[in-house]
Amino acid sequence: MPTDPRPLRDRLRSRIGALVVDNMFNGLATVGRLHPRARPARHNVEVLRDIAYSPSGLPEHRLDIYRPTAPKPGSPLPVVLYIHGGGFRILSKDTHWLMGLAFAREGYLVVNINYRLAPQNPFPAAIVDTCDAFGWVVRNIRSFGGDLDRLAFAGESAGANLATALTLATCYPRPEPWARAAFDLGVTPRATVAACGMLQVSDVARFARRKPLSSWLNDRLMEVSRAYLHGVAPSLDGTLDLADPLILLERGDAPARPLPPFFAPVGTADPLLDDTRRLQIALDRLGVVCRSRYYPGEVHAFHAMIFRKNARRCWRDIYAFLGEHIPR
User: Which of 30, 160, 228, 308 has its CB surrounded by the most CB atoms within 10 Å?
Assistant: First the structure.
């Protein structure tokens, strides 16, 4: 694996910056959980924490289940497999408890997963783990009251990338053993929610070519690419297809199984906006339903700020989309 060519000082600064941001979000998530309205029981939801989806014993290979406590007797629940964002480098299922609670209070059984993070674990570690977690869901979720016939994948930012890549792994017979294992399970999602996604991790300089970015923001985007790809360059053999799922879709290859409908919300002030536009075009060309929604003036991952009007609107739009394809 190629090494990072930057001076040690720059690598340390990047890593320290990531740790500071990670600790900040972990602190905010912990404080948020203390609010009375954040208590799952208040929303008729129970949480089953730290279930291992791999025998590795690593905390990165654990998931939480958010489950409504008052379903109709004998009725299995639609399932949302949720994949957190954080630029492949930071955050966790614990920082994203709000997403699990938000879906569960609407009647979905939510599987909120961890995965290994870069740069210690660069591509393909995150998507390998996501495929493994999907395998666990297929084998086990019925025993928790889930309905595999009503399954959706969802994620934001890097999680949107992983949700899209996992969708493609279930619909295209890939050469990677871990992707082929996901395909061979024979289960595909009925819907995919890819919110404010970085859907191509290579060539992040494209964002600055399209629209001038601050040096700080451009550096953050470059850090994501360096950490996740760790010096691996795109190649014609498709090595990075599941790091760059947008590129795979833009090639226009017909899937072996039908791709599900996509919902792709994004703010118009999000520097990653163009990837959502490209996703819409690529899926249109393949004849796949894609509903992209653009929220004026909103920044990256704005829907996590539920006190904002557009964030609440975005959640209503997500629920309406899922209600069409995996009804409660």
Answer: 160
pLDDT of residue 31: 47
Q: How far apart are CA 164 and CA 238, in angstroms?
A: 16
Give the chain's domains with CATH numbers.
Answer: 8-325 (3.40.50.1820)
Q: Is the pLDDT of residue 8 over 60?
A: no
16 vs 274, more confident = 274
pLDDT (tens digit per residue) in 99-158:
999 999 999 999 999 999 999 999 999 999 999 999 999 999 999 999 999 999 999 999
